[in-house]
């Protein structure tokens, strides 16, 4: 019997809408598969995906054709070895447990401002009106970017998002992104030249370091990847967590009364509907990988959403269940030396944002007819989280 690969049928449209049935079918039959419509190898098994992520000698991030490297230049997400360690170590102090704990008051203030900006009642789309400003404002302040740049940062972010998915190297997309990168470097140059003594931000710390670990260009490149990741990951995390809870009212009722249960629910939402679906690697040489003949430079996508729903690791993986008793360690923030630098900060933002929304609006209700559920094959988040805001009656208790 002739074996016909299912990879030929995998399309971006399929993965954008609902990738999980596709992942299930591939994992059972071809856990490493060439998808010609995407021009990439897809790895859908947790075991094999972890094998890729643990092996930077065969599967690397520092490939010239990488859209991340092409857009931002060399930085911690698209380099390996000593250079990658130098970049990440230089930035790490802003994102360790102590620094994140010291950021708690700032995050709470940003979330309070965001929830105060919402109407007291009525219809609102929470991803753009709530999750997005929290994510952008928090990471901008941590980096050291002023509020007057926030509108411009959102425009640059949209340009970068298109560029990082530009595996086809569309010239116009690259040109716009490179212009935005130059504008960002120009915007931070004065802050690197004369950082204020009291400024404890990432930019100021890197500029004041003695001896300098990074030059100005390296600071800008790494600040850009931190900025993009801080917006994309956290906006999606907050929106997807709210969507998961609002579509599971029994879980929502329990989470309202317990911070510990809320933390478990957010962690489960990271596994169940991760905002970042892929960890991209490039074959360092021609190689054989579990029956697949992969050419040097080929894109190898570890599909994090598929790895998180591998039934060999998680029982009944398509069920959203914060109180699982089986091992549930997910790969949403990556693994190893490229593990997400801002994971702890993103978790803090999500817990604070979800708790504030539930407390302000105890009768928060999802408008299913107008909500557009999570979508996207690489960056995946609720497209429109349409809700009706209803708080407690002002006459409650009278």
Q: Which features characterize this protein?
A:
398 residues; 50% helix; 16 helices; alpha+beta; 12 strands; Cytochrome p450; five-stranded mixed sheet; three-stranded antiparallel sheet
How would you sum up this structure, described in words?
Helices cover 50% and strands 11% of the residues. Mean pLDDT is 93; it is low at 393-398. A hairpin with a 4-residue loop joins strand 1 and strand 2 (40-43). Helix 10 (171-193) crosses helix 12 (216-246) and helix 12 (216-246) crosses helix 14 (259-272). The protein has 398 residues and is α+β, with helices and mostly antiparallel strands. The protein has a single domain, classed as Cytochrome P450 (Cytochrome p450). The chain has helices spanning 12-17, 20-29, 46-53, 67-72, 81-92, 97-102, 104-116, 126-143, 150-164, 171-193, 202-208, 216-246, 249-255, 259-272, 304-308, 343-360; strands at 32-35, 40-43, 59-60, 122-125, 278-283, 287-289, 292-294, 299-303, 365-366, 372-375, 381-384, 386-389. The strands form 4 sheets. The chain has a 5-stranded mixed β-sheet, with helices on both faces. It is built from 16 helices and 12 strands.
